[in-house]
Specification:
7-stranded parallel beta sheet; 3-stranded mixed beta sheet; 14 strands
Length: 310
């Protein structure tokens, strides 16, 4: 860890897909971590678990007390209604910002989403954009990072695409030439790690990170990349928006609040450009993606198989 004084990080979302990897990496780099959790966790060196949640202000105050910086990873990526998104992304961000201010924890790193750049497309994007405004007007020493689609071993969001690829096809939005950026979870966590030391001034800056592929992936090329990772030649099948909407209704009937394809996500999926702004990349001397996406997808497919997720 840069510097001679051991720093303490308060992390929200530390038991989630991104947060759990960030927790491991932070401890490996010599940081002390205070981590928010709803459930009892096993003791581990370098980690102080704080029982609570984003809607429990007392637990957030306890989380931030004694921390040198706050890393806000927790958020809601899927919810059955607007209130679910607002509670997780707006109210939760406001609560952790207030807790950091009360505790005197000046440094605040916020994990947003590329969806925040198109708030008109989805409730998810709208609430992430509002969360960014809360952070930007907080008076804290803030930095925001906007990841695109995040994948890697243990991710549940991409699982359905891998399952389809196993059958020889991958459905995608109507525009096969639509583009997207992606990033491996480990590279995202390394980017967050690069923002933690105070040798650089990242105050009031917004960064976007990806796998480094110029111009991102086309929807079709990424579908074929998942097929390659599964050892399959796949057909990339563009699905009209009207059919995706019917699919969302069917998924809601079948899985209720656990539906993956929602009406909110249909609008999001059908947008034709989910690539990052190259001008907002982190300085290359501080961070660059290290994981080749084809290899990362293959490692993810292997993890799914080994853990019986397929």
């Amino acid at each position: 860890m840069a510097g001679s004084v051991q720093k303490t990080i308060a992390i929200t979302g530390a038991t989630g897909f991104v947060g759990s990897r960030m927790l491991d990496l932070s401890v490996q780099q010599g940081y002390d971590v205070r981590a928010l959790t709803r459930r009892r966790q096993d003791d581990r060196p370098g980690v102080t678990w704080v029982r609570g949640a984003l809607d429990d202000q007392n637990s957030l105050t306890k989380l931030c007390n004694g921390a040198d910086m706050t890393l806000h990873i927790a958020g809601v990526v899927n919810a059955p209604d607007r209130r679910g998104f607002e509670a997780g992304n707006i109210d939760g961000t406001l609560a952790i910002v207030e807790a950091a201010k009360q505790a005197g924890t000046k440094r605040f790193i916020h994990v947003s989403s590329l969806a925040a750049t198109q708030p008109q497309l989805s409730i998810y994007g709208e609430t992430k954009a509002k969360a960014e405004k809360i952070v930007a007007t907080s008076g804290l020493d803030w930095t925001i990072i906007r990841p695109p689609a995040v994948y890697g071993p243990g991710d549940g969001e991409f699982l359905e695409l891998f399952k389809m690829a196993r059958l020889g096809f991958v459905t995608m939005p109507p525009d096969a030439d639509g583009r997207l950026s992606v990033i491996h979870v480990q590279d995202l966590c390394r980017a967050l790690l690069a923002l933690l030391p105070d040798e650089e001034d990242f105050t009031a800056q917004i960064f976007e990170v990806d796998d480094g592929k110029p111009g991102g992936w086309t929807q079709e090329s990424f579908a074929k990349a998942i097929g390659w990772a599964m050892g399959k030649r796949v057909a990339a099948v563009g699905v009209p928006k009207s059919l995706l909407r019917l699919g969302a209704m069917a998924d809601r009937l079948a899985r209720g609040d656990k539906a993956k394809l929602t009406a909110d996500r249909v609008n999001y999926f059908c947008h034709d450009d989910w690539t990052i702004d190259p001008q907002k990349r982190l300085p290359t001397q501080l961070w660059q993606a290290q994981i080749d996406t084809l290899q990362g997808l293959k490692d993810t497919a292997n993890w799914y198989r080994q853990n019986d997720w397929m």
